[in-house]
Design a protein that fits this description.
Oligomer: heterodimer
Number of strands of chain B: 6
Shape of chain A: globular
Number of helices of chain A: 6
Helix content of chain B: 25-40%
Strand content of chain A: 15-25%
CATH topology of chain A: Rossmann fold
Order of helices and strands of chain B: HEEEHEHEEHHHHHH
Number of domains of chain B: 2
Largest interface: A-B, 41 and 46 residues
Largest sheet of chain B: 6 strands, mixed
Number of helices of chain B: 9
Structural class of chain A: alpha/beta
Radius of gyration of chain B: 19 Å
Strand order of the largest sheet of chain A: 2-1-3-4
Shape of chain B: globular
Order of helices and strands of chain A: HEHEHEHEHH
Number of domains of chain A: 1
CATH class of chain A: Alpha Beta
């Protein structure tokens, strides 16, 4: 019986993806994608932040800990930051995080870094769909959650 | 050694400094010494057993040490990079510390060991050292000994890990980090962990679960490694302090290599070089951004 239930859960599994986006470009871009009625996978939960530089790498680690299977981090294109230089600093941090996650065994395809401007509704649709496809191919990130003593929340 | 003791006595007698942080003989090899009385300065020793990075004691978190007053510190070339790091990050003032540099020809991994320097006994940190004779000092003592033998273990381990698949690397780190008991000795031993309140100690919001579960251990070590990116001087004090012998130096070394490759920054003993994550270039590599 319990096996049957587990089977069911796996066959209906759909990834949870957390998107950490900047208010000024990507959030507006995602809004544009919505008002343009662009069709995209409904796996992404958007979290609005003042700047991509506000994304502490801990946010991404925490998202994985709390059950996300993938994370999107997106902000203004370089040179277009609302605060002039925020995304340049963020880019350096993300580069290191990207390398470290790979080194500790988290597949690189689970974290998507991208720049999406306020007018790029289409690009946002593409980022969401491509990330969802990649994470679906990798399967659930149960390794973070199934470890002994660390139940998923 | 005589030179060092006389210098310490002179500095304390003159009142230039209130405490000299150096090494002394202890029951299990050399250990850290805090000399405040000039007559005690003959306790100071320096030889190839002095593996510990004493700069952790300059760290502004050590309030009881700061209360003693201005300090002089005995450093090797590699430790001078930590002093430069603390100055670079505005944690200490250059004028507020007297740096006594020792010319160093490599140290032993185990301070209780009396043997010769060989590939097995030499500290792994010496393999990556390029500052046998630091440029950051007030006094520099000793004669430059010959280059030590190289312990290739660390470089080989990193290369082997890079060849693994993601799943194998995950398995490797899960096994290693599952031993972590969250004693935070790595943080306490680290010369560059200088936050007044560590993120791991915060409870509102609680970023890092304080319990010793594999998941929380992974979050803690990932966070610490990230916070040390561009700061870490690869002194491996974290690894030496770890009671569970987790190869934390691998993480640190890998990130240091990534920083060097991406931002052309290598930890050095020049405090005027900016911290790599505190600056940017408009043409930084962004091949990882989709």
């Amino acid at each position: 019986m319990s096996d049957g239930v587990k089977q069911e859960t796996i066959s209906t599994w759909s990834p949870k993806i957390v998107a950490l986006v900047c208010n000024w470009c990507t959030y507006t871009g995602a809004d544009l994608a919505g008002t343009s009625r662009l069709k995209m996978d409904a796996n992404v939960r958007v979290i609005r932040l003042p700047c991509s530089s506000r994304v502490n790498p801990l946010f991404i680690i925490k998202a994985f800990e709390r059950g996300a299977d993938g994370v999107i981090v997106s902000g203004c294109h370089t040179g277009d930051c609302h605060f002039s230089t925020g995304n340049y600093y963020a880019r350096r941090r993300f580069a290191i995080l990207h390398d470290l996650l790979e080194f500790t065994g988290v597949e690189n395809d689970r974290v998507t870094f991208s720049w999406v401007s306020a007018s790029e509704g289409n690009k946002w649709q593409q980022v969401v769909n491509e990330t969802t496809t990649r994470v679906k191919a990798l399967g659930p990130l149960h390794i973070f959650q199934e470890q002994k003593g660390g139940e998923a929340q | 050694m005589k030179e060092l003791q006389e210098l310490a006595r002179k500095l304390l007698n003159e009142g230039t400094v209130k405490v000299v942080i150096g090494y002394e003989e202890g029951p299990r090899g050399v250990r850290a010494a805090f000399i405040t009385d000039p007559t005690q300065s003959e306790k100071l020793v320096f030889d190839k057993r002095c593996v510990q990075n004493l700069v952790a004691y300059l760290n502004p978190r050590r309030k009881h040490l700061i209360q003693l007053g201005k300090a002089a510190i005995v450093v090797k070339g590699c430790d001078a990079r930590s002093v430069a790091g603390l100055i670079r990050e505005k944690q200490i003032e250059r004028g507020n510390v007297v740096v006594i540099a020792m010319r160093c020809g490599g140290v032993l991994e185990n301070p209780a060991n009396e043997s010769e320097l060989t590939c097995e006994t030499v500290s792994v940190r010496c393999a990556n050292c390029d500052v046998r004779e630091p440029k950051l000092y007030d006094y520099i003592l000793g004669v430059l000994p010959p280059e030590p033998p190289v312990n290739p273990a660390r470089a080989e381990q990193i290369a082997a890990l890079k060849l693994m698949t993601s799943a194998e690397r995950w398995q490797f780190w899960t096994e290693q980090l599952s031993r972590c008991i969250r004693c935070h000795a790595c943080r306490e031993a680290c010369p560059m962990c200088f936050c007044v309140q560590c993120t791991a100690d915060k409870t509102q919001p609680q970023w890092i679960d304080p319990s010793s579960t594999p998941r929380a251990n992974r979050a803690w070590q990932t966070m610490r490694t990230l916070h040390q990116a561009g700061r870490c001087v690869d002194c491996l004090e974290c690894e030496r302090a770890c009671p569970e012998h987790i190869p934390l130096g691998l993480l640190a070394r890998y990130v240091a290599d990534a920083v060097e490759q991406r931002f052309a920054y290598k930890s050095c003993d020049d405090p005027s070089v900016p911290a790599p994550l505190g600056v940017y270039r408009t043409d930084d590599d962004e091949e990882f951004i989709r």
